[in-house]
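Reviewer comment 2.1 asked that we show a complete input and output for one of the modelled complexes. We chose the flavin-adenine dinucleotide case, as it is the one discussed in the main text.
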Amino acid sequence: MTTADGTPNVAEKFREFSLPSTPPPTDYYLVDELLKPQEREVRDKVRSWVDREVIPIAGKYWDRAEFPFEIIPKLRELNLTGGPIRGYGSPGLSLVGAGLVAQELARGDASITTFYGVHSGLAMGAIAILGSKEQRERWLPSMARLEKIGAFALTEPTHGSDSIGLETTARRDGTSWVLRGAKKWIGNASFADLIVVWARDESGEVGGFVVEKGTPGYSAVVIEGKIAKRAVWQAEVTLDDVRIPLENRLEKARVFRDTAKVLTATRYAVAWEAIGHATAAYEYALAYTKERKQFGKPLVSFQLVQDKLVRMLGEIVNMQLLCLRLSQLMDERKATQGMASLAKMINCQKARDVVGNARDLLGGNGILLEYHVARHFADMEVVFTYEGTDHMQMLVVGKEICGVSAFK
Ligand SMILES: Cc1cc2nc3c(=O)[nH]c(=O)nc-3n(C[C@H](O)[C@H](O)[C@H](O)COP(=O)(O)OP(=O)(O)OC[C@H]3O[C@@H](n4cnc5c(N)ncnc54)[C@H](O)[C@@H]3O)c2cc1C
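Response of the prediction step:
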C-alpha cells in the first residue's frame, strides 16, 4: 500500500476503494455495522416478529378501524416492553436499541407502534422518570408484562401545542386528589388500566396523577372517523370529579417542565418511527417498480422513476444517520431538547416526502390497502403531528439556537 519512500500508493488505494460491494437495499451506507451486537439482535428479533405477526393482519384491522387485541399476548413474548427502563421487568435497552424497536414496529404498522409507544414509552416512561421507588415498584412490573396497559393523558380539546396551558384541575380533599376536566386524543384510554393524567393543582403547578381503571367519574369515548392510524383507538376523556388516593400523584412531577422531560425522553422514538414508515414505503415501491411494466419496460428503467427512488433512498440514509447519532448522544447524556426536536422534525418531513413518492410510484394501486403503501402514506400524517407538530419542534430548536423563545 506504500511506495518505496513510504508515501501511500494512490493507485492501490483507489483499487481498494472501488472494490465492488452490494449493500443491502435500504441500509445503503451499512449503518448496520455501527450497531452493537445486542442492538442488531433486538432489531432482527422485532423485524421477524413484525413480518410474521403484524404485516399479515395490519390492513384488515386498519380497514375496520378495529384494535388488534390479539397482538398484546404476542407482544408480551418479545420481552422488550419498557425499552430503556432498567429493572422492574424491562430490558434496559440502549436508546439506539429502543429506537430500532420503534423503527421495526413502524415498518410493519403504525397503529401497533402507537399502542406500544403510548404504553411502553409515554405511560411507563412517565412512571419510570417521575415516579417514586414505591410507585415504580407498584406499577411498572405488571406494565412490563403487558398485564396492565397504560395511557398518557396530556392533550385537551382546547390545548394541543400549548399543552402547557392545560385546564384540568386536581383538588386535594382529605386523603384524595379530585380530578376534573377533559382530555382529547388519548391513545389506549378507552381500555387502559392506568391512565397518567396531567392536571393543575391548587398552586397552579402541573402534576401527573395515575387514574386506575374503574374509578368512578372517568369516561372515555373512542374518536371515530379517522383517516390515519385507524387500528389504534384514541379517546375523548371526561374527568368528572375522579377521586384517587394521594399516593397516586407521581412524586417527581411537580411542574410542567417535569412533564416535558417525559416528552423529550420519548421524542427520539418518533424520529425512528418515521424511518420505519419511509423504509417500508421505499421497499414496496422499489419492488413494485421492478415488477410493473409500462410502455413495454419495467418502471425502474425510466429515468424519472429512478430519480424518485434515489431521492427516497437518500432521505432514508440521512434519517438513519441522524437517529443513530441522536440516540448515541442521548445514551451518553449529551443530547439537548433541541437535538431531539430537530430529529423528529427532519425525519418526519423526509418520511412524509418518501411515503408520498412511494404512493405515486404505485399509481392507482398506491391507494389500495393490499399494497401497504397507502397505510404508511396516511399514517405518516399522524407521526408528523403528534408528540409535537413540525412547527413546535422547529420553535424548540429556534429557541435553543437563537436564545429567544417564540412561544410560552
Ligand atoms: C392519532 C393521534 C394520537 C395522539 N395520541 C395522544 C396521546 O396518547 N396523548 C396525548 O396527550 N395526546 C395525544 N395526541 C395529541 C397530539 O400530541 C396533538 O394533536 C398535537 O400536539 C397537536 O395538537 P393539536 O392537535 O391540538 O393541534 P394545534 O395545537 O391546534 O395545532 C394546529 C396547527 O397550528 C400550529 N401551531 C400551534 N401553535 C403554533 C405556534 N405557536 N406557532 C406556529 N404554529 C403553531 C401547529 O403546528 C399546527 O400546524 C395524539 C394526536 C393524534 C392525532
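The longest helix spans residues 256-291. We note this here for comparison with the apo prediction described in Section 3.2.
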